[in-house]
Write a structure and sequence with these properties.
61 residues
């Protein structure tokens, strides 16, 4: 998927295993980690665990 600024977005259905990633890769100090995301805001790169939002909600008026 490409966002409005033209940057690619990559999502994974499996949870990110931070310890396993850090054991295999040498991460630069610019990376930021959250519970389900690895981001490098300086280089506009992010890896996110995508959670399916489920079916759309309906509005009853």
């Amino acid at each position: 998927m490409v966002d409005r600024d033209g940057y690619g977005r990559y999502s994974f259905t499996e949870p990110l295993d931070r310890a396993a990633l850090q054991a295999r890769l040498d991460f630069p100090p610019t990376l930021l980690f959250t519970k389900d995301t690895v981001r490098d805001p300086r280089n506009f790169v992010g890896i996110t665990h995508y959670l399916d939002p489920g079916p759309p909600l309906t509005l009853n008026v």
